[in-house]
Design brief:
5 strands; alpha+beta
């Protein structure tokens, strides 16, 4: 009887799954269920004519964005919507904090989002961003 009960318990335990969004990094690759925002295939600066002042300004902004993104570390607060790269002020529509970093990507957790933000109703969710995706976000928020 004890053996049968043990086998039934083990069989039931194998049927249980967790479909909720992951709150931790998990194993990289196949077992991870945290969404990833990839870097765009083409840089925003590519639309500007080479050698022009707009191209030079965009390249400088991209350089500053790359520095900013590479210096992010766990616990840093960022503005995810309405001023990425700046301190999260009252004009920031969505605030996030860096939960983890990995090679070429950053794990952000949405902490607070205003109704006008695309991140509204995604509080406490985590998202991986490739560094290029965050650089693109920086450029977009700075008018490029």
């Amino acid at each position: 009887m004890k053996t049968t009960l043990l086998l039934v318990s083990l069989g039931c335990a194998g049927c249980l799954t967790d479909s909720r969004a992951s709150r931790d990094r998990g194993a990289a690759g196949i077992f991870e269920n945290v969404p990833t925002y990839p870097a765009p295939a083409v840089s925003r600066c590519a639309k500007f004519k080479k050698g022009g002042s707009a191209a030079a300004a965009c390249d400088e902004a991209r350089y500053l964005a790359e520095l900013y993104v590479r210096r992010l570390s766990s616990g840093d607060e960022v503005c995810l919507d309405g001023g990425f790269g700046d301190r999260p002020l009252a004009s920031c529509l969505a605030r996030a904090s860096v939960a983890d970093t990995d090679t070429n990507r950053v794990l952000l957790e949405v902490r607070n989002a205003q109704p006008g933000s695309k991140w509204f109703n995604k509080e406490a969710n985590q998202f991986w961003f490739e560094e290029g995706a965050l650089v693109d976000l920086y450029l977009a928020d700075h008018g490029y």
